[in-house]
Amino acid sequence: MTDETTRRRVLTAIATAGGIGALGGAGTYAVFSDTASTKATFTSGSLDLRVHYDRTYVGDDEQTDSGIIDGQGSTELPGYSELMTGDSGQLKFCFELANNPAYLWACGELTTSSDLADAIEATVRYRDQDGTKGNPIGEKNRNLSSVFSALNDGLPLDSKGRDRDAGKQTAYEPSSSGETTGPCLCIDWKLPDDTDATVQNKEFGFDLRFHAMQARHHDGTNNPCTGD
């Protein structure tokens, strides 16, 4: 009997130039086969995760961009430069999941840190695919440093848009090709108007990864972020 597990990863490394970066995701799928003496072969289903992203930056004017992250290796998106007090934005990630239900996890970390990451207020929340605001995850109006400290420990995502501990979340259902499933994950951020001038000419970067764990083989408690 052979038991083969293959990990498919899409990682976005964030490089910023004095501002906030963009994010990406990671997917995981598993295929198991079993051949008996009768030559019969049994093969499980598979997973395929693609991450649809939208970025919005509001400063003197509004900038938006979007795309889909899919494939091997890492994808790097440009950051924002010359942030000013009062500037804000949103990073939204929606999930296209093929074939089988899966537990989704978000993992992240700051790759470089500075006072700027400490100064930027951020709230992590669910949003519907049309952008309708959903429930916050964790505390509101944290700074980005504390957000990524929490993401470093792993964040289980709930398909019903609730803030749930591992094992209490609901798996995401598969979607049609090109369509997304369940609520999206958003990071809303703002550099407050009263930010101290000491953050001038500072920069930081971060990574964000997403994992899909096939629901038929997991109960939602297995944290893939600890093995990144």
Automatic annotation (TrEMBL):
The organism's taxonomic lineage, starting at the top: Archaea, Methanobacteriati, Methanobacteriota, Stenosarchaea group, Halobacteria
Identification of the protein by name: SipW-cognate class signal peptide
Protein keywords: Membrane, Transmembrane, Transmembrane helix
Chain segments annotated as transmembrane: 12-32
Region (Disordered): 154-180
Tagged with keyword Membrane: yes
Transmembrane helix keyword on record: yes
Organism: Halococcus thailandensis JCM 13552
A Pfam family this chain is assigned to: Peptidase_M73
